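PROTEIN DESIGN WORKSHEET
SECTION A - STRUCTURE
LENGTH: 819
TOKENS:
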């Protein structure tokens, strides 16, 4: 175990002037104290006592007994409220949002908070199950006399059975215990045992302390993508970091898209179709399973107000979210009256601001008439991020949740833009009616790779928000439960430090992040501390360039290599560094790709088939017919002439690419006025004669391989080969499924291309395209061309013009990416 780094405050806490000279909790590994709790302790009190007992045992080898009555001659550590703390007049009455009290006397130490147990109100969901949801909805219908979705159907997500606590329990005592342990040098930088630092201390003195600690931000909520399946050891990590759910401020339901609970039931859709916006000629009741609300509908307004009032009356919620459904900001309704409310002249971020907040403010005002002591919340999001211009002052009960990506604030222009927007909102809001929402999503599979550290942006922003914001929610990517190993990297290997810094700054926004970094590197990486500090400082200054700059990637990888060399691989510091190396592995291939010359910024974004509005392609027979019922009409791209001097093609061509799981679906349509003149020189696969007739050629370069060729002729023959150095040439097969269809005036191709994955070449160099799924950060590059022969002339067209009578110009390959 590396020697822990102690801050000046922590050192002062341990030095002899601050504790009684002859009083010890543990001396030379022997327990001299006991943990005293109340006879009927709160859930969080019991967990705090267990945390103190187990951590002290790890530190010293001494197990402090947990009792409800004091033992004569023993020093007492009072954990939580009990008759003993009452006798000492240690009140927790005014401790809110996880605040805590620490005090000591000659032979006692008290660590306590309010520790109020959350008691769920019926009806609420016990598990993720359709029948369970139907049951709680039916019970909710009896209460409301309507067909709303019961937001409490997902309440089970907030209970952690392995800890026997609710996220909505007050954790003041737990916070006090962990603050005491932090003073002894304990750190919890990441979830699980690999993320903790517990120093060895044979002797632990009784401190002299008398202080009350309150956080700078009341709401400190971390929400994980996998919340519905459980978050495992992240639940305990959250508590150790001092974050909370903030239910006493914001309530228990989700903090966003609250309108969906009004409109998502099928019964509501059938009874009131007028509540849904008309898009492309029909009422949209299917968008993301919820439908799209029609903000011009009087019935929608009536129903939403009714729903909010029911939440207040029955569940006694302090705040309820009334925000729109996810994705609303990118939609377009048909009605002229709807379009008339938009302000496109303000730019994307303000196009819907007056439209959306005009409606939401009316809801807030109506609710305020009946419940003046309650709050409603809404997001500043998407195309309604800017403050409305037509509303001078928002309803006094409306709380804004300002959504941003704090990591973008390295760009001073974006930072100042968001600060101006914030100032505009604050002028219209009542004091204190402001919350922020941030994202920690760099570990998502399509984004993972870059070492994104942005602690300075976190510190700068939270200092400005202190005294302004009620708090914050951070949305955090996490691998699906039980599938962590399949991803090949740890989802919080890098992100944990940004989250650690954020959580600690919620309590004291004025802390020095440079000191926090020094503490982190020394405590967490031991002999590699200086090397890791150099790596993190470089990453914080350069991560934003690593998607385009091969030199910066190389520098970062070299610094990490030095850190790896400084620590034994099997040691905790070595394993922690390896987690980062595993996460950054895609950068190695990206560095090679970025080093290649590019002469076009042309790109094609691959949509998932579920987002096209058409039938699933996996349900379509593979027959070569690019049927719009399955392919839809989205992202159809034309092929154009290769060179400026070439004549316009006599036969047009187009294509679409979509992804479904690990399969790329490629549909190609070749218009042909002379179908009888089609020239297929072979019907055999891998016959080079195929290239002498009509054919379509797909060229693909992945992040790890340059490059592959797949050519197909009208007879359905396939010629594929690996052009990369060390490749297998024509002995390689793509594994693609191909079908060709002949129509009256066109021929078309459907191709299903399996994404085999990174390192496929190592596993079997003769099969499959070596490369992970094409992403925005780690794209593939490609070109698609058609060769047409008629009357002794050759006509070539392609997606990306090459300037030559040839498709094989890698510098002209376009970017292929998706999510």
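SECTION B - SEQUENCE
RESIDUE ASSIGNMENT:
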């Amino acid at each position: 175990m590396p020697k822990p780094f102690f801050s000046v405050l922590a050192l002062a806490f341990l030095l002899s002037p601050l504790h009684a000279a002859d009083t010890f909790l543990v001396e030379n590994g022997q327990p001299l104290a006991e943990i005293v709790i109340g006879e009927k302790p709160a859930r969080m009190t019991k967990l705090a006592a267990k945390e103190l007992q187990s951590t002290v045992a790890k530190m010293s080898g001494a197990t402090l007994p947990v009792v409800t009555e004091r033992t004569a001659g023993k020093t007492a550590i009072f954990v939580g409220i009990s008759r003993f703390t009452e006798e000492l007049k240690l009140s927790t009455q005014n401790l809110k949002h996880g605040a805590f009290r620490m005090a000591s006397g000659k032979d006692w130490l008290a660590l306590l908070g309010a520790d109020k147990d959350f008691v769920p109100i019926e009806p609420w969901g016990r598990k993720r199950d359709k029948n369970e949801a139907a049951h709680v909805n039916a019970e909710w219908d009896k209460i409301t006399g309507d067909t709303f979705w019961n937001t409490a159907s997902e309440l089970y997500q907030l209970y952690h059975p392995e800890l026997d606590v609710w996220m909505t329990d007050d954790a003041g005592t737990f916070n006090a215990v962990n603050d005491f342990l932090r003073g002894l040098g304990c750190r919890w930088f990441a979830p699980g045992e690999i993320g903790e630092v517990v120093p060895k201390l044979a002797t632990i003195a009784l401190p002299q302390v008398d202080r009350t600690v309150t956080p700078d931000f009341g709401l400190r909520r971390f929400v994980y993508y996998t919340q519905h399946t459980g978050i495992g050891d992240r639940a305990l990590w959250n508590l150790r970091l001092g974050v909370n759910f903030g239910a006493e401020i914001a309530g228990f339901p989700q903090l966003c898209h609250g309108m969906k609970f009004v409109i998502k039931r099928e019964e509501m859709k059938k009874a009131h179709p007028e509540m849904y916006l008309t898009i492309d000629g029909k009422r949209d009741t299917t968008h993301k399973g919820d439908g799209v609300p029609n903000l011009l509908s009087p019935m929608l307004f009536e129903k939403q107000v009714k729903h909010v009032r029911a939440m207040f009356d029955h569940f006694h919620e302090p705040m309820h979210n009334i925000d729109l459904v996810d994705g609303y900001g990118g939609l377009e309704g048909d009605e002229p009256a709807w379009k008339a409310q938009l302000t496109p002249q303000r730019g994307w971020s303000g196009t819907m601001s007056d439209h959306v907040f005009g409606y939401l403010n009316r809801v807030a005002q109506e609710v305020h008439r009946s419940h003046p002591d309650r709050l409603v919340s809404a997001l500043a999001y998407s195309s309604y991020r800017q403050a409305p211009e037509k509303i001078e002052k928002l309803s006094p009960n409306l709380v804004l949740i300002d959504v941003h990506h704090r990591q973008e604030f390295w760009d001073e222009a974006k930072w100042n833009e968001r600060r101006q927007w914030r100032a505009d909102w604050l002028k219209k809001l009542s004091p204190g009616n402001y919350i922020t929402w941030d994202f920690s999503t760099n570990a998502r599979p399509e984004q993972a790779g870059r070492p994104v550290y942005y602690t300075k942006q976190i510190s700068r922003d939270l200092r400005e928000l202190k005294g302004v914001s009620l708090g914050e929610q951070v949305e955090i990517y996490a691998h699906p439960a039980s599938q962590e190993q399949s991803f090949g990297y740890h989802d919080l290997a890098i992100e944990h430090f940004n989250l650690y810094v954020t959580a600690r700054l919620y309590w004291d926004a004025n802390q020095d992040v440079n000191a926090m970094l020094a503490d982190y590197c020394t405590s967490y990486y031991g002999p590699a501390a200086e090397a890791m500090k150099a790596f993190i400082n470089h990453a914080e200054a350069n991560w934003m360039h690593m998607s385009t700059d091969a030199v910066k990637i190389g520098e970062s990888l070299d610094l990490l290599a030095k850190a790896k060399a400084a620590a034994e691989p099997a040691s905790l510091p070595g394993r922690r560094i390896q987690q980062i190396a595993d996460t950054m592995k895609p950068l190695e291939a990206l560095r090679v790709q970025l080093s290649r010359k590019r002469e076009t910024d042309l790109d094609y974004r691959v949509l998932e088939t579920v987002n096209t509005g058409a039938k699933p392609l996996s349900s379509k027979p593979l027959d070569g017919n690019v049927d719009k019922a399955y392919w839809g009409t989205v992202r159809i791209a034309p092929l154009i002439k290769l060179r400026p001097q070439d004549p316009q093609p006599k036969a047009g061509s187009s294509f679409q690419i979509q992804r479904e799981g690990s399969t790329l679906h490629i549909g190609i349509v070749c218009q042909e006025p002379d179908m009888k003149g089609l020239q297929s020189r072979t019907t055999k696969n891998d016959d080079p004669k195929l290239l002498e007739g009509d054919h379509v050629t797909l060229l693909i370069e992945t992040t790890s391989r340059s490059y592959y060729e797949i050519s197909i002729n009208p007879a359905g023959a396939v010629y594929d080969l690996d052009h990369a150095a060390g490749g297998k040439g024509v002995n390689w097969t793509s594994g693609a499924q191909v079908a060709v269809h002949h129509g009256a005036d066109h021929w078309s191709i459907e191709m299903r291309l399996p994404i085999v994955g990174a390192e496929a070449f190592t596993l079997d160099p003769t099969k499959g395209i070596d490369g992970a799924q094409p992403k925005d950060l780690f794209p593939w590059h490609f070109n698609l061309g058609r060769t047409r022969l008629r009357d002794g002339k050759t006509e070539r067209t392609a997606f990306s013009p090459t300037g030559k009578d040839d498709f094989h110009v890698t510098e002209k390959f376009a970017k292929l990416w998706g999510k």
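SECTION C - NOTES
The longest strand covers residues 746-757.
The chain has a mean pLDDT of 93.
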